[in-house]
Amino acid sequence: MTSRAVVAAALLATAVAGCSSATTEPKKPTPVNPTAAGLAAGFGTMDRLVEAARREGALNLVGVPRDWVNFGAVIDRFAGEYGIRVNVAEPGASSQREIDFARKAPPQQAPDVFDLSVEVAAANTQRFAPYKVTTWQDIPDQVKDPTGLWYAGYGGYMSIGYDPRKVPAPKGFADLLKPGYSVALPGDPLSTASAFNGVMAASLRSGRPEARRGLEFFTKLRGSGRYSAPSKANTLVDWDYVNAAKAAETASDDKPSWKVVVPSDAVLASYYVQAVSKKAPHPAAARLWQEFLFSDEAQNLFLKGFARPARMEALEMKGTLDTQAASHLPRASGTPVFLTIAQADEAKSFLKANWAASMK
Residue 253's pLDDT is what? Predict the structure, then answer.
């Protein structure tokens, strides 16, 4: 065969091979696994997760009030963006009540995702399915389970809200023992997480919590007649996002009726964590909800509700933080204290044994 013939044959073979590869059927995408522990493993892309969630059509939540850290706006934005109906059962349910509700709810009415205190989440990990959102690395290690069973979405610091028309600005908890203050907790510390943390904030000395000191503080208030119901109090010990929201309602008045202080010597921090239910009736929607909660958009929506988003430092570094919303947060100085699960459990046991008798 001449050299010219050899070249022609080679060109023909190449052309045939090219035609053959061009007609090969495209590779089919990996089947969706709506119970996977991550976006890539379960869905491949965000678009496929959205598609799977839309097919399910609904998301079930429990214990999420619309007026709590701007959750109403978060829910509305999620529903509007993805066309998924959001059902909220028992909006005012406590963390433990969320777990109790899940035990008894019919399968299709069971919650897809929980919003819980760290202690309740840690005690109920057998109910959760691991799922690490794409922004996982931005969440501080101290507020997430390393396997992805639960992780913090938002939180804040324990604070003192007060009526400046009736009492001077307190610098710390010790000032609340002075005449004139009528002090309340937002519930029973034996069953309400915010009230329990209020007691523990009052107990801090040099960054160390001790439930006995917190009980002694509120016992003194009780003995002096200055421990009151929230409706009658001029001072409320509660999370800063609760007191800040109340203060914002009157901020434009000539004489605002509420202000908030985070005591520099008692900066008790806590976060609420999110967890996907192992028995979620809408597993893809549950994972899409998680991805949305930890997106820049939703984290900034929490910030507008005066909560401190878990990814706040990362947002600031990226330049995506809503700086105007951040400027409205109560100022906090000092080193934040996070109760360990062991410390919280020990304190709850002590208060369970002693609170009721001491506060009669």
Answer: 74
The total number of residues shown for the chain amounts to 360
Q: How confident is the model at residue 10 (pLDDT cuts 50, 70, 90)?
A: very low
Tell me which H or E stretch contains 317.
Answer: helix 312-318
By DSSP bridging, strand 151-162 and strand 235-239 are: antiparallel
Cα gap 293→316, rounded to integer Å: 17
Residue by residue, DSSP assigns 142-205 as: GGB-TTSS-EEEEEEEEEEEE-TTTSPPPSSGGGGGSTT--EE-SS-TTT-HHHHHHHHHHH-B
What are the CA-CA distances from residue 193 to residues 85, 90, 119, 199 (Å)? 29, 17, 10, 10
Rounded Cα–Cα distance for residues 30 and 272 (Å): 34
The pLDDT tens digits of the residues spanning 300-336 come to 999 999 999 999 999 999 999 999 999 999 999 888 9
Two tokens at 51? 């598609």
Question: How far is C-alpha 291 from the chain's CA centre?
Answer: 13
CA dihedral in degrees (280, 285, 289, 290; nearest 10)?
Answer: 60
- CA pair distance 103, 338, nearest whole angstrom: 29
Per-residue pLDDT, 250 = 83
pTM above 0.70, yes or no: yes
d(CA 144, CA 252): 38
